[in-house]
Amino acid sequence: MKTTGINRTNKWPYLFIAPYFLFYAVFSLFPILFTLYLSFTDWDLFGNNNFVGFYNYVQLFAHDKFFWKSLGNVLLFIACYLPALVLFGMLIASLIESRMIRRKTFFRLSFFSAYMTTPVAIGIIFALLFDWQGGFINNLFVELGWIHEKVNWLGSAAWARWIVILMIFWKNLGYFIMFYTAGMASIDTSIYEAAQIDGASARSVFFRITIPLLKPINLFLVVTSIIGGLQLVEEPMLLYSGWASGTSMTGGPDGSVFTPIWYMFDASFSGSSFKYGKGAAIAYSTFLFIALFSLIGIKWLNRDGDSK
């Protein structure tokens, strides 16, 4: 009888958490598994649903130059803005946490406000800045005499990549600063005081104390930035939505800002043929690269610990 009473008592927690698992199974787990199944088919909007095995993956990896170009684009973006975010994030955070700055909360919120900006607003802001005819950058450079003719920033493949890199850097700088300021504020001040007593310079303190103690934060920021970078889509897509660049260009000029998720969207929902199977294969292939490069980032940041 006691065992029955205990079982009746213990069943209530499971009943309370059951709705969460039910919603997760219906709205998360099932779409994930169904998408995996779709990646092995040639399913489209018109009813074709033939099982083709690894055909979609073979086409992507062996014959699809657009997939590799989109992957190369995002890796180039990450290689450019991630080191800059780490460097400038640490430097600005150390400046905010120094004794020279009194209103620390004001500066933290000022930098973090950019991260809270929606991708739609970011696309509009940078489109207005780099518009060919009436953009602020062109008008400013002409007034300063730096250029004599307005530059079609969004129409150039090289400039388009740098604009997207600048967009992501501007948006995420405050995010990095917030983590670094929180990490620096949590470091015991007695460590810095001991270093000063021993005669350590500010440079030595920064490189030998601050940076090593921020290693867990660097690990988190690098890995999440790699994941977010490989999933990049909103900012470049909105920048080339049509009204800003003068024409709707999928992937920007010469595909210079094409991303894997943009390619997935274009293959699945754009054009005359809706290739859901191909789009699903692109999604899972991107997931594999996210896992691969995240693992590389973790191994690289933990290389000192592994050597010990």
Characterize the structure shown.
- By secondary structure, this protein is mainly α.
- It has a single domain (63-307), classed as MetI-like (MetI-like fold).
- Helix content is 72%, strand content 0%.
- The protein is built from 14 helices and no strands.
- The protein has helices at 2-38, 55-63, 65-96, 104-112, 119-129, 136-144, 157-186, 189-197, 202-213, 215-230, 234-239, 260-269, 276-301, 303-307.
- Helix 1 (2-38) crosses helix 13 (276-301) and helix 10 runs antiparallel to helix 13 (276-301).
- The longest helix has 37 residues, at 2-38.
- The chain is globular, with a radius of gyration of 25 Å.
- The chain crosses the membrane at residues 12-40, 74-97, 109-130, 150-170, 213-233, 281-301.
- It is a multi-pass membrane protein.
Task: Summarize the structure in short.
Helix content is 72%, strand content 0%. The chain has 14 helices and no strands. Keywords: Cell membrane, Membrane, Transmembrane, Transmembrane helix, Transport.
Which descriptors would you attach to this protein?
single chain, 308 residues, MetI-like fold, 14 helices
Span between termini? 57 Å
The proportion of residues in beta strands is under 5%
Count of all domains: 1
Largest sheet: none
Compute the number of strand runs: 0
Structural class: mainly alpha
CATH arch. level architecture? Orthogonal Bundle
The CATH homologous superfamily is termed MetI-like
Note poorly predicted spans.
none
Question: Average pLDDT value?
Answer: 84
H/E element string? HHHHHHHHHHHHHH
- Annotated CATH topology: MetI-like fold
Anisotropy-based shape: globular
Helix tally equals 14
Q: How large, in whole angstroms, is the Cα Rg?
A: 25 Å
- Helix content range: over 70%
Per CATH, the class reads: Mainly Alpha
